[in-house]
Design brief:
2% strand; three-stranded antiparallel sheet; 340 residues; mainly alpha
């Protein structure tokens, strides 16, 4: 029961490269940054070294400063909704249905590969949806007051779990099937999973989503180094300290194991207590301080501004990646239509 509402720090795997670029250290200690690409790190350093910070709309048009009201606005290429969901400029480049279509086609190709070896691909290894970007609360901290009053610093909805995955494979699938699908680490080649991706993706393994995720990482890194965001983080920290909480930035409380579930016992089979009154009180104070200090408005508008700059700077590779995505999507639809 309690494991179905995970603390926000468990989502850090989706954020390690972003935080490595951004220098927002509260969350980075829980993840491995070895996957950060050299190109991404270089671009991140360039973004951080900008002499001129991009302009953003006046915050007066984006906030009332009333802690009783959720933050909601449209401006500067960004949309922030009362429930904490948002749209930023790079989001227009990624289509979740398209990514899912490609994943399903890769499933079909992997099935074909497995059958050629006299094996069936178990349902537990099939993916049912494409990769997902980190939720806004993972990047910026808690946003939705209604969710915070119930779940504290836990994920506000049950985590999406795609069917299958390597973690479940060893217990449920024969070792020979696992090796055929994922590849033998002692031999060259990536198994049927890797072969399917290569067959659909062609000689260039870089995808549109990879381009977008790199730019998101660079943008977020620049955002957290922006003087306006640093000032907003400082105001938030001062507000929290006045209420008795000492945290350097809005990602820190969700990683504080001494806060999560404070005062309640750990149920059998769980790793943490459920959200306690102490945790919920801190989460409510957190969001109240964000609203009072204009933190959310600032960070979202600044993020959108850096994304717009990066889209302009990287227009040519983005267009090339879009063209490749269209080709891959056409192939995926043909594969699914023909049944592999």
């Amino acid at each position: 029961m309690y494991e179905s509402r995970r603390p926000l720090w468990t989502a850090v795997a989706a954020l390690t490269a972003v935080l490595a670029l951004g220098g927002c250290g509260s969350a980075s200690t829980d993840g491995d940054t070895s996957g950060t690409s050299a190109a991404g790190a270089t671009a991140g350093a360039t973004a951080r070294a900008r002499a001129a910070e991009p302009s953003i709309p006046s915050l007066g048009t984006a906030t009332s400063g009333d802690p009783a009201k959720p933050v909601a606005f449209t401006g500067g290429g960004a949309v922030l909704r009362p429930d904490g969901s948002m749209t930023l400029p790079l989001d227009s480049y990624v289509s979740a249905p398209d990514e899912t279509t490609i994943v399903l086609a890769e499933n079909e190709l992997a099935k074909q590969c497995m059958r050629a070896q006299g094996m069936e691909l178990p349902a537990s290894l099939l993916l049912t949806s494409g990769p997902e970007a980190p939720a806004p609360y993972v990047l910026y901290g808690l946003i939705d007051m209604d969710a915070a009053k119930v779940y504290g610093y836990r994920e506000p909805s049950p985590p999406h779990r795609s069917k299958g995955g390597t973690a479940a494979a060893p217990a449920k699938v024969a070792p020979a099937v696992v090796r055929a699908y994922f590849g033998d680490p002692k031999k060259p080649g990536g198994g049927c999973e890797g072969d399917a991706r290569k067959k659909l993706g062609g000689p260039n393994p870089t995808t549109l989503l990879m381009h977008v995720q790199e730019l998101r990482s660079v943008s977020l890194g620049a955002t957290y180094q922006d003087s306006r965001v640093k000032a907003a983080v400082s105001r938030w920290s001062v507000c929290m300290k006045r209420a008795g909480y000492d945290y350097a930035d809005p990602l820190a409380p969700g990683h504080d194991r001494t806060l999560l579930g404070r005062g309640l016992p750990v149920p059998p089979g769980a790793t943490l207590p459920p959200p306690s009154p102490a945790e919920i009180s801190a989460a409510v104070t957190d969001i109240t301080c964000k609203r009072r200090t204009g933190y959310l408005q600032t960070v979202v508008l600044v993020s959108a501004a850096y994304e717009r700059e990066l889209i302009e700077e990287r227009a040519r590779p983005l267009r090339a990646a879009q063209d490749e995505q269209k080709r891959k999507l056409r192939s995926a639809k043909e594969i699914l239509r023909d049944g592999g």
